[in-house]
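[stage:ingest] chain + small molecule (WT7)
[stage:ingest] validated
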Amino acid sequence: MADLYPVKADVAAKARIDKNTYQQLYKESVENPDAFWGKAAQRLDWYTAPKTIKNVSYQLDDFRIKWFEDGELNASVNCLDRHLDARGDKIALLFEPDSPDAPAKGVTYRELYERTCRLANALRSLGVKKGDRVTIYLPMIVDAAVAMLACARIGAIHSVVFGGFAPNSIADRVIDCGSKLIITADEGLRGGRKIPLKANVDAALKIPGTTTVETVLVVRHTGGAVDMQAPRDRWFHDVVDPQPAQCEPERMNAEDPLFILYTSGSTGKPKGVLHTTGGYLLYAAYTHESVFDLREDDIYWCTADVGWVTGHSYIVYGPLANGATSLMFEGVPNYPDTSRFWQVIDKHQVTIFYTAPTAIRALMREGEAPVKRTSRSSLRLLGSVGEPINPEAWRWYYEVVGDSRCPIVDTWWQTETGGILISPLPGAIDLKPGSATLPFFGVQPALVNAEGEIQEGATEGNLIIRDSWPGQMRSVYGDHQRFIDTYFRTYPGSYFTGDGCRRDEDGYYWITGRVDDVINVSGHRIGTAEVESALVSHPKVAEAAVVGFPHDIKGQGIYAYVTLVADEAPSDELHKELVAWVRKEIGPIAAPDHLQWAPGLPKTRSGKIMRRILRKIAENAPDQLGDTSTLADPSVVASLVEERKVK
Ligand code: WT7
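[stage:predict] done
[stage:export] tokens:
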């Protein structure tokens, strides 16, 4: 029996949603989605309120996902304009810089509105129109949110590329969506180290195929030297500052695209997950309010980067649509020391703190002292996201960080889902360490066995979602068929998450991890195929196979098996060179943690690499290899196992 942490009476008493309300609303949401979501939609400001609420079919021959299809709204208006009367002087974004010695800055809703309008006008003046794509490659600074909101204001589709990605990865994403303009900064700053963002953009734009980019707007952030290439490159302040502080918003249909965000899949290049305006914004706002039990005076801090979906939904769109104060942190958890998170919480009196298990595990390793020398008395709620949280880390988070006072919401969701699908609601759902617990309103999870049959009761299987929710992605940018094939073909009539999951006797969900060829490294998705193709692009590599393996801090690490071309021999230098090569090709997050020379790879007679076997070898569990009888050359396995033992 797993531990149970019942909802505390004082939490329940103040909560927006208690046990009865959850049960009642959940029932209503699945029995009558039109009534439920029609009412929920009233939390947004619409130019034209939607009359048609849900129009969804997961049938392959009649496929459609539409929510609020006759409604019209603008996301930036919902995040800014409508708060001006009541909250114009309230802090919308609280910026905490990389260095604690640099000044923190509070940006009010009115200032954010004006900055957004100026940039929106500037973008229009540079010829950016509704439907055009804009790439945002910025550090965690207020201008990143301004850039997203300015695109939303004029109906341009933003594609935020995480600042840790390398020039090749920027170029792939720019080419895929045909960006017209890039917004970047001179440099980023993380843990005292400078990241050459503008130089990376320069390198990306030398790659053939990136010629759609007409303009690069450069924010002066660190003041570091950059090359400015006229007429392409323009200083952000030169173009933006002279613009008027009002900007007529574009009226968007609810189903008009809001943004593209690239994420790794099991095959090929990252796919451009496309989210639309009405359903996404509503779902981000509603889940943010409910899961974090939001109050007007909360200081809310999500430690994600805006380069990931968590930053989109739960730093920018959800919190701002709700009129909240959202903290943006430029730095890292261990700079200048491992107390930083907790010091920032005290400094800004943070009430809600949302982070990833990998950060918790890394800080747990430092012991209690760095936590205990801070107060953290402002905290009332903790959150976790990105990967399963192991019960040991959960308890440390609960007891040491939250002083056994704050509920933890373990929120399961994906880039594709737009917002949280399975999570506790703090006033309504008893907690179990390691379980994301129960579904949000309108979400119908189910578990299927290997034959694709839905299993009832306490069981384990692949996690599917049986019906749509408003925040669901609508397409893979430029490849709608890939969208349908990836998510709706495996289990007809349902959305396939790619995750394995267990359900216990109380109906609680326990995510067990990816069941496809995606590795979850520190809460970030890396496709094994991407790392493999980076490796084989090195002239000395003949073949590569990449799998995930359990990693104490990162959750999963990257394990690469490499076969060299005929006349090359393994060496420590080549080992280093290949790891550095992947960093340079994709970005530091994709660098293999472990690289093993493989004279041969285990393949079936038809030539398919048997990853199941490679995973077991990487896990150091050669006694669990299972059936190897279908291998073309079984001796390959023995030599890999032998080699692994040597390490
Ligand atoms: C994958 C999605 C959700 C935003 C950040 C990651 C894993 C995410 C949890 C959780 C167990 C989780 C899943 C999922 N995951 N949250 N609370 N418990 N696993 O978004 O990069 O799209 O990755 O992250 O495996 O499929 P993403």
